C-alpha cells in the first residue's frame, strides 16, 4: 500500500525544487548577463555595492550638501545607473550581428557611467556640490569631466537606438518597445542640458565680470536646495527639471518591460498588429507624460501643486491612453469569442 506522502511525491516529483528554482532566478539572470556582457554586468554589480555603501552613509553621516543629505545624490545615481547598466546589457544582446560595435558601445558606456559615479562620490567626500559647481578650477574640471561622461552615455544610447531600427528577427512588439524606450530616454536625457543653463541671477553675476560659483540649476522659479520631497529632493515649492529627466530616463526600463510582457506566447489572442498598437499607444502616452512634466517644471510649478491646466493635461494623456488601449483589448477579446 502506497502512503499519502509517497503518492504526493509521485504526483509532484519536483515540488521541493520549485521554490529553489525561483530563489535562484536572479542568479541565473546575472550569469546570463555575465555571459552576454561581463563589463557592464560587473559595473552594475559594483553600483549595487555602491548603493549599499551610500545607504550606510545616509544612516551614520548627517552632512548636508546643497540642501540635501550628502549621500542622497550618490545613492540615487547608483540606483539609476545600475538599472541602466543591466538594461543596456539586454539591449546590446540584440546587436550580436555587430559585435565590434557592441564592444565599442560597451566601452563608451562603461567609461561614461564610471566617470560620473566616481566623481559624484569624490565630491561628497570633499563636502561640495558636484553638478553645476565651478567655484574652483578643480571643481570646474570635475563638472566638465562629468559632462563628458554624460555625453558619452548619451551617444552610446543614440547609436544603439539607430542600430535597433534595423533589427528584424525578434518579436515586433518587443523591438518597437525597445526603440520607443530608447527614443524617450534620449529625450529625457536631453532635459539635463537645460539644467546647465545659467539662471537670471547667475547671468547677472557673469555679466558683471565675475564667475558665479554655481552655474546652472535644476529648480525653476526657486533656488536649488530648498524644500523637497524626501530622498528624491524634488522641489515642493517650485518647478524641478529633474522629474521629467528621471521619468524620461527610465522609459528604457518601463517600455521594454511592456514589450516583453505583451509577448505572443503570453497573449496569443492578440494579433501582432494589436500588440504593436498597444506598445505605441502606451509609449506615446508615456512620452506625453514626460513632456507634461517638463512643461510643468518650466512654468515654475511644483509636482505636488499642479494647477487646473496641468490636471487637465494629465487627465487627457491618461484618459486617451486608457480608452485607446481598452478599445484594442476589447477588440482582441471579441475576435477571440467570434
Task: Describe the secondary-structure layout.
Layout lengths: L3 H8 L5 H7 L1 H12 L1 H23 L3 E2 L2 E2 L2 H21 L6 H28 L10 H28 L7 H24 L4 H8 L11 E2 L18 E2 H9 L1 H11 L10 H27 L9 H30 L1
Antiparallel strand pairs: 1-2, 3-4
Description of the structure:
The chain is mainly α. The chain folds into 2 domains: 35-169; 172-338, no CATH class. Helices cover 70% and strands 2% of the residues. The strands form 2 sheets. A two-stranded antiparallel sheet has the order 1-2. A two-stranded antiparallel sheet has the order 3-4. The longest helix is centred in the C-terminal third of the chain and has 30 residues, at 308-337. The chain is globular and about 70 Å long. 34% of the residues are buried.
End-to-end Cα distance: 50 Å
Shape: globular
How many DSSP helices? 13
Order of helices and strands: HHHHEEHHHHHEEHHHH
Identify low-pLDDT runs.
1-19
Question: Mind describing the biggest β-sheet?
Answer: 2 strands, antiparallel
* Fraction of residues in helix: 55-70%
Rounded to the nearest angstrom, the radius of gyration is 23 Å
Q: How large is the share of residues in beta strands?
A: under 5%
The main sheet orders its strands as 1-2
Q: Could you say which structural class the secondary elements and strand pairing correspond to?
A: mainly alpha
